[in-house]
Amino acid sequence: MKIFLLFLLFCFFTSLFNSCFAGNVTYDRRSLIIDGQRKLLISAAIHYPRSVPAMWPGLVQTAKEGGVDVIESYVFWNGHELSPGKYNFEGRYDLVKFVKIVQQAGMYMILRIGPFVAAEWNFGGVPAWLHYVPGTVFRTDNEPFKYYMRNFTTFIVNLMKQEKLFAPQGGPIILAQVENEYGYYEKFYGEGAKRYVTWAARMAVSQNNGVPWIMCQQDDAPEPVINTCNSFYCDQFTPNSPNKPKIWTENWPGWFKTFGARDPHRPAEDVAFSVARFFQKGGSVHNYYMYHGGTNFGRTSGGPFITTSYDYEAPIDEYGLPRLPKWGHLKELHKAIKLSEHALLKSEPTTLSLGPSQEADVYDDGSEVCAAFLANLDDKTDKNVVFRNVSYHLPSWSVSILPDCKNVVFNTAKVGSQASLVEMMPEELMPSVTSPSKGLKALKWDVFVENAGIWGVADFAKNGFVDHINTTKDTTDYLWYTTSIIVGENEEFLKKAGRPVLLIESKGHALHAFVNQELQGSASGSGSHSPFKFESPISLKAGKNEIALLSMTVGLQNAGGLYEWVGAGLTSVKIEGLNNGTMDLSMSRWTYKIGLQGENLSIYKPDGLNSINWVSTSEPQKNQPLTWYKVVVDPPSGDEPVGLDMIHMGKGLAWLNGEEIGRYWPIKSSEHEKCVEECDYRGKFFPDKCLTGCGEPTQRWYHVPRSWFKPSGNILVIFEEKGGDPTKITFSKRKISGLCSLIAEDFPMVDQAPVR
Ligand code: GAL
Fold first, then answer.
1. Ligand 1, pocket residues at CB < 6 Å
2. For the chain, which domains are there?
3. Catalytic one among 250, 359, 659, 721?
């Protein structure tokens, strides 16, 4: 007895700091059962490397205040295992720290180990080195892949065990995932696929981590692994066995962006509708993918062409601010679901028809608790329905929640939460007080221009083309393909005004073409389509001409059957308009150089900064390609989150104090495409349904976490590929400039968003 009291006391005190989980996690057809208790769980995906440790406690807290019980994250293999057996758990990759922050917040954790994850993450999370281990084919039945996959999974599970982070050990982790949406792609892998699924499930279960394993979008997930649903709607999903609960691992509350494309939006009303429908139809674990999308720092974005921002129009925005009204509306929804939890978990639902597209699901076992969901699935017309002799107004495409079977506490289409106006307020770059330019008004820019072509010693030469990715092995975005041609004095074009045309074909992803050190033009693929053509008149002179083509990757493929074999780089180069017609250079002698000189010398890192001779100026030249800029600045004033405004720049990479901000590319979407003024939330959502930003840059601002700034002497380094105006770069502070209340018809005003 004494011991038990002591234990209770211990639980009470630790729960002030930690929650006292010590839970056994089992399941049946209705729900997860944690320590003997059934649970309805609202989960939120926050990917730890998509923000910084200084943001983690705030993000987790904002999720908790939003009515979330569980934090979910993938584990990012290629961020952790940099080369075979060489692990990284520093900084943004400090997984243990992240899970402990979740634990300290008194929340549960779902760990989706994968270790293939898709996730718009470079190479779907699988390390590029594994592609070059002989005999490896990703995600199917072959020894090298299975060896490294098992190895990494075991490493992560053991790390979590050592730190006592699984629920039966008192930790927060209640579920673990193996693989990711393999079901979609099994057909690409033939015979080996089935064996691989069975192997992956067994391998996972044999880890003995004491919590159930899940596989998402895997109808044939073997027992006891639970198959789960990923979609915009999962109310109609049923697991593959009557003993498994209905779990929704990915409800996408917005969508990701690709460079050069428009901006997708999913209205809060439709997100709420999908969640309410899921719980109406017996769902018990629901996860927002993403709840905070964050940032693809450095070269971590997948693709090709996924933007550096992974904002996702999630309930918490990229910068860590609650997105209103979405965050607030979902918070109210979560309250309504929790009010109904007891009834939902106690009985089986009875479905009643209330009209042609109207239905109720009633959870009533005759005891004191009763909850009901009334849905109007008509996407055009509002309806009045009668339920238990009472009339209810149901807006089209909405669900009302009645936690006592009488009173409506929430309707998914009635947004009672505040909406916010968010602005990016520009603030000029200020010379740092500790910089040599102290006292000067103008900033001092240090400039270094790369050679347009081979720098140092060439890596190799070859007749014809190599594959870009097989050559760089993703150590850099850049690969130079260079050759030279001799132009005879008697070429007609030298006498006339006309110019020969350079024609290039590439498997992807982007290209800048230089002739005799001059940029002639650029081209790139778009969307998920990486191949492209380049066609442009070029300036040639009599005699020898240097042709230097800078081929670029913009994030490696992150999903699809046999995706790791998709290549990039040049496949054809021709010059048209010469006396002899067309000159085909495709089988010429090409000389190659991997990466840039500045990258090779790490001139963006504090200890590499002095390895080249920078040229100082207060007026850097505009539109200069292949240029590195370094400037020492003060942090922007205040404490609002910061974005770097790159609208006046071309394309490249940026760093602050050696930390990788990422790829910038303010490429615009076409102004001729279709955009919406307002989005009708009614009817099934799909990513192209509500697009805005026609003719605007897909991404103008690039998140620079506050914790990367020092009080002074901050070194901002930019590598610009094609030319821009660095003097127009500013920091912008993200500010909530106004809150407006949408007065919901039926419900009182809801809580304010947390103030940070
Ligand atoms: C899913 C995948 C996620 C993510 C999502 C789209 O199919 O499992 O990892 O890529 O799509 O954001």
1. 117-120, 180-181, 230, 250, 252, 256
2. 2-337 (3.20.20.80), 423-449+601-739 (2.60.120), 460-595 (2.60.120.260)
3. 250
